[in-house]
Amino acid sequence: MKKIAHLLLIVAVLAGLSWALWRGFQHHPEGAAEAAGEAAADEGKEEHEPNTVALEKEKWKALDFEMQEPVAAKLTPRRSAFGRVLDPTPLVTLDSDLAAAEAALAASRAEYERSQKLLAAGENTSKKAAEAAEAQFRADEVKAAGLRRSLSLQWGGAVAALQTPQRHALAEALVRGESALVRVDILPGDALIETPRAARLQVLGREAQPIDTMLISPAADADVRTQAQGFIARVDQAPFVLRPGMAVTAWLELAGEPRAGFAVPRSALLRHDGRTWIFIQEEEEKFVRKPVTLEAPLEGEQGWFVAEGGDLKKEDLIVVVGGQVLLSEEMKGVGGEEE
Questions:
Q1: Long-range CB contacts for residues 334-337, cutoff 8 Å, separation at least 24
Q2: What is the pLDDT of residue 11?
Q3: For the whole model, what pTM was predicted?
Q4: pLDDT per residue over 108-134, tens digit each?
Q5: Beta strands 230-236; 179-186: pairing state
Q6: Angle in degrees, 0-180, between the axes of helices 164-176 and 89-121, rounded to the nearest 10
Q7: In sequence order, which residues have a C-beta less than 8 Å from that of residue 222 and are 6 or more positions away?
Q8: Cβ neighbours of residue 58 closer than 8 Å, sequence gap 6 or more
Q9: DSSP-assigned letters across all residues of 297-337
Q10: Among the listed residues 50, 125, 44, the one whose alpha carbon sits nearest the alpha carbon of residue 288
């Protein structure tokens, strides 16, 4: 019985091995064909260059792409600052109080001078009345001087130095929205020895309408949170109404030799992955995306200033129309999404 059982076991093992070998020979050609197909497909794939888009000439011409070389530009030394449009209510209130104090001072001064003349001439006036007139005059003088000091401490020397008619005109313009006062602070830890000569302001959401101002003075205090040095700029006849609390970015113009660089049109700029980029036409059907550092907006329609020595060169061809299409094509190629 044991011999029969061993014989049956050997027969079963041999049968299993024979079946496995047969199945292997049956499926080998199919598996080899699949592996060969995958290898051929891998060989057919081109390796994707980062930040690069290949686009046929006929396609980008049909989409009306426009390219141009960088335009040479110069930028005077500047320092960036950030701030907000100030609420004019405290200044308008202080102006009204000071106007009332100055009117009272003018009246008490006239009464004091009249009483002193009468007293000196021996006219019908008492010494007590003359002393009362002088006391009122001195009190009004102290009150007006105190309000002027408050004006200087809160709004800086430039505003405090205005004559009464000029101060009234500024207050009225602030109330009507024809003028605005903007507080800007340079970066914490930075410091300027001299007062900037001018400032260019950009309001958040209105970047295409920069505002230039020549009237700028040091702020009377430092920012409580950042301890940064601040300046107050007066803006007259802005292209739109500057409402209190609007956030602004400023470029403060300093003395010194201008720096050379390029003007990059706004239409060429792209925001992606938290940075600013432009596309360069490297070959007839090849476009490369490069990062750029924008230093300051330029006048009119020139765009933004980019300093020499970076990724942008004078012989580059910047894509000024069609950059968004190229970014979309690039994101499709890598399976991502554009911002």
A1: 334/48
A2: 56
A3: 0.62
A4: 999 988 888 887 777 666 778 888 888
A5: antiparallel
A6: 150
A7: 228, 229, 230
A8: none
A9: EPSTT--EEEETTSS--TT--EEEESHHHHHHHHHHHHT--
A10: 50
